[in-house]
Amino acid sequence: MHSVVLTKGVPDFREGQVSFDEDGHLERGKTPTVMNPNDQFALRAALQTKVKHGGQVSAMSMGPPGYGDVLREAMTVYADDLYLLSDREMAAADTWATAITLSSGIEKIGEPDLVFAGFKTADGETGQTGPQTAWCLDYPIITHVIAMEVDEAERRVRAKRLVEGDVDEIETVESPLPAFIITDPEYESSYRKATHRLRRKQLKDETEVRAEEHEDHMTTWDHADLNLDPDYIGLDGSPTIVSSVDPIPKAPAEREATMVTPDDEEGMSEVLETMQPFAAGD
Ligand SMILES: Cc1cc2nc3c(=O)[nH]c(=O)nc-3n(C[C@H](O)[C@H](O)[C@H](O)COP(=O)(O)OP(=O)(O)OC[C@H]3O[C@@H](n4cnc5c(N)ncnc54)[C@H](O)[C@@H]3O)c2cc1C
User: Fold this and answer.
1) Among candidates 177, 138, 144, which has minimal Cα distance to 162?
2) In the prediction, which pLDDT does 14 show?
3) Which of 253, 10, 279 is nearest to 120 (CA)?
4) Does 36 sit in the ligand 1 pocket, CB within 6 Å?
């Protein structure tokens, strides 16, 4: 069973990491890049498939050379090998040009049984790349997946999915393999057998060691390796141009802040008095 997991780098939007200029524009150069948080669920689903059916898990990303670190982060969740699709011709791609490039990378690997992608990224947030890549590969697609099992003998995947993302409405669907799976942030793996839990632990230990030497497990392809015409990828191949990114105005601070220093006894006792009812659960 061969699974490919797609992952993208996004700005680290956590407090204290992200940097905005005085006009509220994101300063990408000053903001670290991390693996898209939603992609961890796609990696976990691929790990579950490997635990139960063996085989290989490959993580793939299209982006600048720095995305090698994004793939290292993906390998800490789980990956046997890594593929970075990177060169200048691929830069500033919209989701369509990204899908063309990713599907060519997947086809160069061969015909994987399962391709996984995250629900959406923390920056572009379109959620379009997965479905477009599935279309390019002509794979059946299941979105909003919260649980799944593979029937290797029947070459079918059975999945529980949220109907229109609604946690109260769940349907079970089946698809022949190969198939494209988009995991929902509500996705959870299931390991009912002790043997599977042991196997999972063993694989997790191995992948964390492997991630320390992630470059030894990484293949980098440029557009020539993928036999891609530069006119169809990157900015040239993008029907959508992101004309501008307007910062979302900050919500006015509703909370009042009172500064109290530890040596201010009166102030500290007022703080204790205010917090006591909450601590005592009144
Ligand atoms: C603020 C902003 C707005 C944008 N708006 C648009 C727009 O309206 N239309 C448009 O076409 N482009 C848009 N883009 C460009 C778009 O971000 C890129 O094309 C990007 O590569 C894919 O789109 P996404 O970030 O929305 O990812 P999504 O489609 O939300 O990603 C879903 C999943 O696809 C996989 N994936 C996505 N990108 C990659 C990648 N590079 N490598 C590997 N896996 C990947 C991941 O598993 C991810 O979880 C925007 C970019 C920004 C920063």
Assistant:
1) 144
2) 77
3) 10
4) yes
Tens digits of residue pLDDT in 44-75: 999 999 999 999 999 999 999 999 999 999 99
Residue of 137, 68, 67 lying closest to 102 (CA atoms): 137
CB of 128 within 6 A of ligand 1: the answer is yes
What is the homologous superfamily of the domain 2-232 according to CATH?
HUPs (3.40.50.620)
Ligand 1 and 130: CB distance under 6 A: yes
φ, ψ at 58 (rounded to 5°): -110, 135
Give pLDDT tens digits for 95-139.
999 999 999 999 999 999 999 999 999 988 999 999 999 999 999
- Residue 30 is predicted with a pLDDT of 82
Mutation test residue for ligand 1: of 39, 98, 145, the one with most atoms within 8 Å of CB = 98
Instruction: Tell me the pTM.
Output: 0.88
Which of 100, 116, 183, 113 lies closest to 151 in space, CA to CA? 113
Lookup: tokens for 161 = 């999915």
With a 6 A CB cut-off, is 11 part of the ligand 1 pocket? Answer: no
Angle at 163 between CA 34 and CA 120, to 5 degrees: 15
Nearest CA to ligand 1 atom 41: 62
Considering the chain, what percentage of its residues have pLDDT values greater than 70? Answer: 94
Sign of the alpha-carbon dihedral angle for 83, 67, 8, 85 = negative
